[in-house]
Design brief:
This protein is of the alpha+beta class. It contains four helices and five strands, in the order H-E-E-E-E-E-H-H-H. Strand 3 (60-66) and strand 4 (69-74) form a beta hairpin.
Length: 155
C-alpha cells in the first residue's frame, strides 16, 4: 500500500478527532458552569428567560422567575450563569453604562423631522387628504349611485 492512498483517511480521522475534542471541552465547560450555580445566582435559560436560582438539586434547579413565582427546570436548560452586575443590568436596568460622547437615539423619528425654525405653512393644522382621486373616480361619483349588497337590477 502506498502512503498517498492512506493520506486522505489519516487527514479525515485527524479532523474528526479535533472536532470531537473541542466539542467535549465545550460540554465539560458547560457542565462546570452549571455545577457552580449557587442559590441567589442569576441565570439565563436556553429559552432566553432570566431568573434567580432558589434551590439546586442533582439534575434540576428551582428558579424564581418573578417575585413569588417559582419554576422547576432541568439543569441542562440553564444556558448561562451570569455575574451579579450583569444580571442586575439586564433584568433591573441597574448600572447602565451611558457614555457622554455616545449619541442618544430617540424612540421615534420625530426628532429627525423637526426643524429649529418654524415653517411658513406649518400653522395649517387641517388634515391632509391622502386619498386617490382621479378623473375616473370623479365621474363615477357623479354618475348613478352604486348598488350595495341585496340590491339588483331585477324588477
Amino acid at each position: 500500500m502506498n502512503i498517498v492512498t492512506l493520506l486522505p483517511f489519516i487527514v479525515l480521522i485527524g479532523a474528526m478527532f479535533l472536532m470531537t475534542r473541542s466539542a467535549k471541552k465545550k460540554q465539560q465547560a458547560a457542565a462546570a458552569m452549571r455545577n457552580e450555580m449557587q442559590p441567589g445566582t442569576g441565570i439565563r435559560t436556553i429559552g432566553g428567560m432570566y431568573a434567580t436560582v432558589k434551590e439546586v438539586h442533582d439534575d434540576a434547579v428551582l428558579l424564581e422567575v418573578a417575585p413569588g413565582v417559582h419554576a422547576f427546570y432541568a439543569k441542562n436548560a440553564v444556558g448561562a450563569v451570569l455575574e451579579d452586575d450583569e444580571y442586575n443590568r439586564i433584568v433591573h436596568g441597574v448600572g447602565a453604562d451611558l457614555k457622554s460622547d455616545t449619541p442618544i437615539v430617540p424612540d421615534d423619528a420625530s426628532s429627525l423631522t423637526e426643524t429649529d425654525e418654524p415653517a411658513a405653512d406649518a400653522s395649517d393644522d387641517s388634515p391632509i387628504d391622502l386619498g386617490k382621486k382621479d378623473a375616473d373616480t370623479a365621474s363615477e361619483d357623479d354618475a348613478e349611485p352604486k348598488k350595495t349588497d341585496g340590491e339588483s337590477d331585477a324588477k
